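Dear support,

I submitted the protein below through the web form. The confirmation email said the job was done, but the results page showed an empty box. After a refresh the structure appeared. I'm attaching both so you can tell me whether what I see now is the final result or a partial one.
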Amino acid sequence: MSFASFPLDERLQRAVKAAGFVEPTPIQTAAIPPCLEGRDIIGTAQTGTGKTAAFVLPILQSLLTTPAPRGRTRALIVTPTRELAEQIHQSIKQLAKFTKIKSATVYGGVGFPAQEQALRRGTEIIVACPGRLLDHVQRGNAKLDHVEVLVLDEADRMLDMGFLPPVRRICELAERRRQTMLFSATFAPELNRLTGEIMHRPERIGVATAAPAATVEHSLCPVPQERKTELLLLLLEKTDAKSVLIFTRTKHRADRVAAQIERNGHRTAVLHSNKSQGQRQKALDGFREGKVKMLVATDIAARGIDVAGISHVINYDIPDCADAYIHRIGRTGRAELTGEALTLVTADDRDTVRDIEKALGKPVTVRSIEGFDYGRPTFQAPAPGRNGRPASTPTSWSGGARMGGRLKPRRAPRRR
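What the results page shows now:
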């Protein structure tokens, strides 16, 4: 199948060709036809699957074929983060380049005046984060009563970030007879309730279930918590990496780790929510352009970063759940390129490792790094269960008693 088979306006077909798109991805193949028909859509798809074009192209087609007064906001795309909003905005600009359709981004962390000016000039598409959008609505800068198409992207992430109440309010303000599309990697019960409230007979499309690309190699690197930085610096020294994305659990730790990497001779940038939008954009641009080889980030960067050719993702801190791991690792191994995911783990991480292995459907290789002194405490990986799959109950990774500098394996309790 090719993009030429979709009934798209000639101007959109030209833009698709100019963007280098040839064959649609699975989510595009499944979602674009019903979206073009104006149906409500629930799409299960993770980042890196091409879902942005899957909703942007139908939006642009609808705006081009249905006449309306110029400058009226007719489409609204709601996202959890500024980075994702900018990524979608750039995709709209790319695909609408041969049309006169305008879009604007609305998010916090920057001043109101530039956004106010863009909204008051008139824009057919708004790409927004929920809180700042409602601020503009209250100020009278944005009106949603003519929104014909509403997209909620990364809905599970918005739920995690506490955005469900403002999202509900936005849905109430938008035109009731609109088309609604919701995309999410996972579905909590709250999202099922939301879709029941805001959608009309939606079509469910499940593509690319939560699993990283098959081209990604996964490894666990055991290390005591207090020696993580020492191991990380050795890893960076021994790894032939084109670009490395390093995740930490906290903003303070991201700053500290980045400073230590910089002192070790690597050009490094930091990305987290305490940085201004200008600082965040500069960090992303430097990383994308290859001026900066290392980017240290908190989970705010796990979604919405579209940087080609990231060769390695290193979890300095293991994420808090398997879904978060999948989203972090989704930054590498894209477009069928190979990638490597390394996770620094302590004995306290055993439960999360078990969940990650269940999601992957296989044990993760435990890797020792040549040149690192393992004379201090280490541990064994969880024993595999039947058919090589992870056991449902871990047989090791005890955070408890130490024996001779090693962590003592703990047996699973007998069932009575």
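Response: this is the final, complete result; the empty box was a page-load delay. Confidence is low (pLDDT under 50) at residues 378-416.
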